[in-house]
Amino acid sequence: MAKQYDVLFRLLLIGDSGVGKTCLLCRFTDNEFHSSHISTIGVDFKMKTIEVDGIKVRIQIWDTAGQERYQTITKQYYRRAQGIFLVYDISSERSYQHIMKWVSDVDEYAPEGVQKILIGNKADEEQKRQVGREQGQQKGRLVLQLAREYGMDFYETSACTNLNIKESFTRLTELVLQAHRKELDGLRVRASNQLALAELEEEEGKPEGPVNSSKTCWC
């Protein structure tokens, strides 16, 4: 059976437990949001196909547990990622402060040239905001400065209201495509016109560690 996509990439969601990583994933892949959640155990993933610049991209999106006890497992997945979301909760200053630790993990474990986007999630909880958004605010400047320092785009998102969900996932996919443009251009001239960049069989996508099989939206 012919593949219904041209290229397959793996994206990774990392960040503290409770910042809403799985809610982002559920909203993007299934357009669902659940206000109640349980923490992800180990690693879980979902698939979605989108079209970017005329290319059908199958993205395998891995949702990792934020708890320290699972990080030995989740770090295995850094090495095979082409794109990574670093997620914090705008209502949790602590989760933002921990972004530096997550950046350090990416630098240590992810492949060179991996594409990154910084996400400030739960933007709908404005009344609980602890991390500023506007450039004129002190904390807001720190967020933008951090994103610039590490060459990351920055989005504030809300899985609850669907704010910037499609935009942020599409943007990271675009960045990965741009980073691999030479390989893509070379592969597209093949007689079969089948792109094989970052080829991953979906069976291979089965988690190597514990997986939460519940369909509830975990964070």
UniProtKB/TrEMBL annotation:
Primary role: The small GTPases Rab are key regulators of intracellular membrane trafficking, from the formation of transport vesicles to their fusion with membranes. Rabs cycle between an inactive GDP-bound form and an active GTP-bound form that is able to recruit to membranes different sets of downstream effectors directly responsible for vesicle formation, movement, tethering and fusion. RAB15 may act in concert with RAB3A in regulating aspects of synaptic vesicle membrane flow within the nerve terminal.
Primary localisation category: membrane
Single annotated GO MF: GTP binding
Protein name per UniProt: Ras-related protein Rab-15
Biological process annotations from GO: protein transport; Rab protein signal transduction
Catalysed transformations (reactions): GTP + H2O = GDP + phosphate + H(+)
Subunit composition and interactions: The GTP bound form of RAB15 interacts with REP15. Interacts (GTP-bound form) with MICAL1, MICAL3, MICALCL, EHBP1 and EHBP1L1.
Membrane topology: Lipid-anchor
Annotated spans, Disordered: 200-219
